[in-house]
Amino acid sequence: MNDKAVAQTRLPEPVAPEEDGLDGLLTPEFRVINTGNRRRGVRLERLFWQVLADIALARGIRRSQLVSDILDEAGPGADNTASVLRVYATRELELQRRSLVARGEPSFVINLLQAAPVPAFAINRQKRLQQVNPDFIHLLRVVSGNMAQKISADVVHMSLDIPLDQIFAQFSEGTPTLQCGYTLTIDNKQRRGRAKVVSVPPSPSNMLVGYIIS
């Protein structure tokens, strides 16, 4: 394949919006788009062209192909081509925003962190166990000595060797993870070991997720 052919198949490089000031992003740019047997001239602000380029790159197609697909979907009744493209780009950004908001919820993050195949727990600033995973319940049964016993986190007392306020303070200062000792007490039986803890976003965190490592 020669250099010319390579250049024709190269996908557009996304341009970060923050690289331009507001005036630059508002600057209208003219493009000619082929949709089927029809050529359309489209004048659109630079920011929207950038957003469309990023969407196309994520889908593995050229921006011109994405624009053609959007206009074909809109149909012949959509006379204002620029408005169609603006609405499409804005809708895609809104869908991404909603997805990111949902993934930033503490409950989602806790469930994700506790998917690890080790005993894991979530504990809040009030030193209460908020959530545990099945491996942690199994560990509690081992500690109690009764593998058939139905156990919930409500009947378990757990303490960490480092005060929780100090742990949260270290995370606020940028510490990504730390290890500390723990003590589990259930039915007058105890287990001591080591745990690795991480903070649950958003910051400042009100919850920790810990992994039993010994």
TrEMBL record:
Residues covered by the Ribbon-helix-helix domain: 41-92
Region Disordered: start-end pairs: 1-20
Protein name: Ribbon-helix-helix domain-containing protein
Organism: Paradevosia shaoguanensis
